Amino acid sequence: MIKKIAVVFLLSLPAIGFAQESIESVMARMKPDIAVKIAYQETRYMGLFDDEWHGSGYLYAEIPDVMLKQQLQPEVEMMATQGSQLTYSKPATQTFHQLQIDESNPMMASLAAFKGMMTGNLVYLRQLYELKFTSSELSWTLEMLAKDHEPEEDPIKIIMQGLSEKAANKISVILPDGDRSSYELSQPQQGLLVKTKLVALLQSLKGQ
């Protein structure tokens, strides 16, 4: 009888472990202490084209509201959000823009979501998205549906996934027209060196 009770107890341990995973614990894990850097591999699937588009680079974030995307391949591009301002640069075409973030614009709304996720700002995400969190013994998934969308269109859908007790390793963005992007993410690097690099990139971008 004692042996049977011990077996039942051991079998219950994994369930106890993953039951503790929550949207709050995931967001706390994503929130940087100082600044965070994540390498990414991006694949875009566009309905009008048969070929997939591939890109890679780094994502940076700093609390409370800074995010920077540094694309290195196939061409260098840099995009940063700081507060409500978006700054974009593409040196190859001498393109430079500064504008206010319009969260009703599908592309900008997905950027806003990335900023909220990378800074661990759950309050901000709940303002923009309907959130659905699920977890298992091995992994977790956070699905987000944009609250603001045209009545005749599907809302933007963002799916963030990760292994249990780890930060996100995959993000999918599905736009109203069916186009979608998939990001494979490395585990975050944090610290003063990351912050120093982020500050330098922001200064370089704003100096365009």
Describe the structure in your own words.
The termini are far apart. The chain contains 5 helices and 12 strands. With about 210 residues, it is an alpha+beta fold. Strands 1, 2, 3, 4, 5, 6, 7, 8, 9, 10, 11 and 12 form a 12-stranded antiparallel sheet that branches. The radius of gyration is 19 Å and the shape is globular. The chain has helices at about 1-20, 25-30, 105-120, 120-130, 190-205, and strands at about 35-45, 55-60, 65-75, 75-80, 85-90, 95-100, 130-135, 140-145, 155-165, 170-175, 180-185, 190. Helix 3 runs antiparallel to helix 4 (about 120-130). Strand 9 (about 155-165) and strand 10 form a beta hairpin.
List the helices and strands and how they pair.
Elements: H1 2-19, H2 23-30, E1 36-45, E2 53-62, E3 66-73, E4 77-82, E5 85-90, E6 95-100, H3 106-118, H4 122-128, E7 129-135, E8 139-146, E9 157-163, E10 168-174, E11 180-185, E12 189-190, H5 192-206
Antiparallel strand pairs: 1-2, 1-11, 1-12, 2-3, 3-4, 4-5, 5-6, 7-8, 8-9, 9-10, 10-11
Distance between the termini: 74 Å
As residue ranges, the low-confidence spans are 2-19
Number of helices: 5
Chain-averaged pLDDT: 84
Work out the radius of gyration.
19 Å
Short characterization:
With 208 residues, the chain is an alpha+beta fold.
